[in-house]
């Protein structure tokens, strides 16, 4: 078995005019797990991936694949397979010929073409012109091209684009099995929900910087911590009592409140002291999407409060 191939992004910066697309971007992608690369449009996902592939030169920092710059690799497609733009194909070529052309130019075995077409479910469409493919089929063809060299690492930019729900399920399973084979899998999306159940690790970026680099488990546990669901026939009285004691309380249904900023035992004590009855108290199960929204909210709040703090300092 060939060596593991990690992807290392070290202090990448890249400016376009006055726009700082990458701002000291730092992270490492480990083998054997699916790493989601998440951020809103324009956050810098594609630019980072282009730098990794040596297609864009950074102003500062470097990117390494298996410890080496991608451009210095003797057989790059055997090391890192990538999908950047599913539209980048010669429309008059059939899917089969498109892949055969890549295999020839890259010194890969022609028999891989049929194998990867089967792996992405395009065998029956292999002789059709790629120009007539739907976006979802082009995504599958792009993934087939990324798999041609049987690479130890894969980097896919927005592979869920254009896929129907069945296609999204399929790609989640594919990513999982590639990671289970010990490969390094980096997959970008602007929707956290697309990666639900597929990613083991997430790198959330915004404005060219890493905001969060954590396992999905840590992320969900971190957001769930301190968020408690409370069921009570007296939600207003409960909210008043808990609010006075310093908790943050939000309605979550007719008889249900979400309480944060206070641990379970303290909630019980506070409600008992205020003689408010409740029927249920439990920690929340949080989805990846909720965790992501929570993170984004924190970023927005942080940006919002910064000028006020500065003003206060200036006055004092
Ligand atoms: N070739 C370019 N010329 C000028 N600006 C660019 C270029 N490439 C990227 N940018 C800018 O850099 C920033 C990051 O873009 P990038 O495409 O990397 O983001 P992204 O996270 O991949 O977004 P999306 O989900 O929309 O693809 C954006 O503000 C974008 O407009």
Automatic annotation (TrEMBL):
<dbReference type="InterPro" id="IPR003593">
    <property type="entry name" value="AAA+_ATPase"/>
</dbReference>
<comment type="similarity">
    <text>Belongs to the ABC transporter superfamily.</text>
</comment>
<dbReference type="InterPro" id="IPR003439">
    <property type="entry name" value="ABC_transporter-like_ATP-bd"/>
</dbReference>
<feature type="domain" description="ABC transporter">
    <location>
        <begin position="7"/>
        <end position="232"/>
    </location>
</feature>
<protein>
    <submittedName>
        <fullName>ABC-2 type transport system ATP-binding protein</fullName>
    </submittedName>
</protein>
<dbReference type="Pfam" id="PF00005">
    <property type="entry name" value="ABC_tran"/>
</dbReference>
<dbReference type="InterPro" id="IPR027417">
    <property type="entry name" value="P-loop_NTPase"/>
</dbReference>
<keyword id="KW-0547">Nucleotide-binding</keyword>
<dbReference type="GO" id="GO:0016887">
    <property type="term" value="F:ATP hydrolysis activity"/>
</dbReference>
<dbReference type="InterPro" id="IPR017871">
    <property type="entry name" value="ABC_transporter-like_CS"/>
</dbReference>
<keyword id="KW-0067">ATP-binding</keyword>
<dbReference type="GO" id="GO:0005524">
    <property type="term" value="F:ATP binding"/>
</dbReference>
<keyword id="KW-0813">Transport</keyword>
């Amino acid at each position: 078995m060939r060596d593991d191939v990690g992807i290392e992004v070290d202090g990448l910066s890249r400016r376009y005019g006055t726009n700082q697309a990458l701002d000291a971007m730092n992270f490492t992608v480990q083998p054997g797990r699916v790493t989601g690369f998440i951020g809103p449009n324009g956050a810098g996902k594609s630019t980072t991936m282009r730098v990794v592939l040596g297609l864009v030169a950074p102003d500062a920092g470097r990117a390494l694949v298996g410890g080496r710059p991608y451009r210095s690799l003797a057989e790059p497609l055997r090391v890192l397979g990538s999908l950047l733009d599913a539209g980048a194909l010669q429309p008059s070529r059939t899917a089969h010929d498109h892949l055969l052309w890549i295999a020839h130019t890259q010194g890969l075995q022609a028999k891989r073409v049929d194998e990867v077409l089967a792996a992405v479910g395009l065998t029956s469409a292999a002789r059709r012109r790629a120009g007539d493919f739907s976006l979802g089929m082009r995504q599958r063809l792009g993934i087939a091209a990324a798999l041609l060299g049987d690479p130890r690492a894969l980097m896919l930019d927005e592979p869920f684009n254009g896929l129907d729900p069945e296609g999204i399920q399929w790609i989640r399973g594919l990513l999982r099995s590639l990671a289970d084979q010990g490969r390094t899998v980096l997959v970008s999306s602007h929707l956290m929900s697309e990666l639900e159940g597929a990613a083991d690790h997430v790198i959330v970026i915004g404005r060219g910087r890493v905001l969060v680099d954590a396992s999905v488990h840590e992320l969900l546990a971190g957001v769930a911590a301190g968020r408690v669901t409370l069921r009570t026939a007296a939600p207003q009285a409960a909210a008043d009592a808990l609010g006075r004691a310093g908790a943050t309380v939000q309605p979550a249904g007719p008889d249900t409140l979400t309480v944060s900023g206070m641990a379970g035992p303290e909630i019980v004590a506070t409600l008992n002291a205020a003689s408010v009855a409740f029927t249920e108290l439990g920690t929340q199960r949080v989805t990846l999407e909720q965790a992501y929204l929570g993170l984004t909210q924190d970023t927005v709040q942080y940006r919002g409060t910064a000028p006020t703090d500065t003003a206060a300092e200036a006055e004092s």
